[in-house]
Amino acid sequence: MDFQVVVLAGGTSKNLVPLVSKEVPKALLPVGNRPVISYVLELLELSNLKDLIVVVEGQDAAVRVGSWISGAYVDRLHVEVAAVPEDVGTAGALRAIAHHLTAKDILVVSGDIVSDVPLGAVAAAHRRHDAVVTAMLCSAPVSGPSESGSSVGKDKAKKPGHYNIIGLDPTKQFLVYIATELEKDIRIQKSILRAVGQMEIRSDLMDAHLYAFKRSVLHEVLDQKDTFQSLKQDVLPYLVRCQLVIGDASHLSGYSFSAQNNIIHPSAELGSKTTVGPHCMLGEGSQMGDKCSVKRSVIGRHCRIGSNVKVVNSVVMNHVTIGDGCSIQNSIICSNVQLQDRVVLKDCQVGAGFVVTAGSECKGEALAKKEK
C-alpha cells in the first residue's frame, strides 16, 4: 500500500520510574508477560505492514529495544531502530526522523497500544478517503483515560478534571473539531459552526494514538511549525482546523494538491506578487490582480478579483466580482456578488447577486437582496 510505519516506542520515561530503568526501557515493560511493544509489532505483521521504523528516546534505550526486536522478529519484520533525543515530544520525534520518511503515506502508532483493531483497515480507510490525516478514536474508560502518552515526555499525563472535546460531522466519519486537556467550559467560534454546518460534540472519546498522515502535509507542518511537540495536542488540532477550508473537498474536486499544498486550477490567472497560501482552492477561469493575498480560503469559478485584495478564512463562490483594495475575513460570499472598491467585510455572509457599494465596512452582518 506504499505505507511507511513509524512506531513511537518512548524511552525511559520519568513518569514510569521505578518501573522503567536503563536496563528496561518503556517498550520492554511486560504486559501479560510479554514486552508491551510485541503487541503492536504482531498487529502490524498480521496487517502485512512489515517495513517499520521504531523510534526510541535515548541511545542506550534504542540499543536495548533494537537488540530485543532483532532476536524476536528475525526474518519476520524489516525494522530500523532510530534513536532520538529525550523529551522531544511525539511531533519532535517525527521531526527528527523526517528525512527517513519517503512513502506517500505514513502510519504512526504508539509502541504501547494493545488492540485487536486491524491496522491495515485504518491504513485502507485513510487511502480510501484520500485523507490528510486519519485518527483512531475509542471510548474513554468510565474512570477517565490515563494519558501517559505514546512516546515522549512532553505528552504529559492527563491531570484529574481534564477532558477532551471531539466534534464529528453527522456521518461520524470526519473530525471537524478537537480540543484537548480542557479544565473548563469551551467556546466554539461561530465561524467554525458556519463552516461545518452540523457537529456532534463528544466528550466520551479518547485518542488511541494511531494516525495515518499524508507525508507531504506532515513534512510541511513539522517544518513550518517548529514549536509543535505533540501530535495529539498540536499537530492533529492544527490539521483539523485547516480542513474547515477545503478538507475532504480536495479529493472530491478531482484535483490534486500542488507542491505548495493548495489547489489552483490551470486556467486560473494570478497577477504579479499575488500569493495563494496552503489549504486554499482557486477555481477554473478565475482571475486575480496584482499584490493579492489568499489564505485558508476557497475561491470559486470565473471570479474577477482586482488588485490589493486580501481574502482570509473565507469562501467566495462562483462568478463573484471583487474590486480593488477589498479585505474579506471569516466571510462567505455567494455567487454573482459584486464587491465594489475598498469594501471591508469581517464575519459576514453576502447573499447571491448582492452589490456592496464602494468603501463599505461591515462586521457580523448578513447582506442579501430584499425579497419582492
From TrEMBL:
UniProt entry keywords in alphabetical sequence: Cytoplasm, Initiation factor, Protein biosynthesis
Ranges for domain Nucleotidyl transferase: 5-149
Xref: Pfam families: LbH_EIF2B, NTP_transferase
InterPro entries: eIF2B_gamma (IPR051960), LbH_EIF2B3/5 (IPR056764), NTP_transferase_dom (IPR005835), Nucleotide-diphossugar_trans (IPR029044)
Family according to the record: Belongs to the eIF-2B gamma/epsilon subunits family.
The keyword Metal-binding is annotated on this UniProt entry: no
Subcellular location(s) per record: Cytoplasm, Cytosol
UniProt entry tagged with the keyword Protein biosynthesis: yes
The protein's name in its UniProt record: Translation initiation factor eIF2B subunit gamma
GO cellular component, one term: cytosol
Main localization (coarse): cytoplasm
Domain EIF2B subunit epsilon/gamma LbH: 265-358
Assembly, per entry: Component of the translation initiation factor 2B (eIF2B) complex which is a heterodecamer of two sets of five different subunits: alpha, beta, gamma, delta and epsilon. Subunits alpha, beta and delta comprise a regulatory subcomplex and subunits epsilon and gamma comprise a catalytic subcomplex. Within the complex, the hexameric regulatory complex resides at the center, with the two heterodimeric catalytic subcomplexes bound on opposite sides.
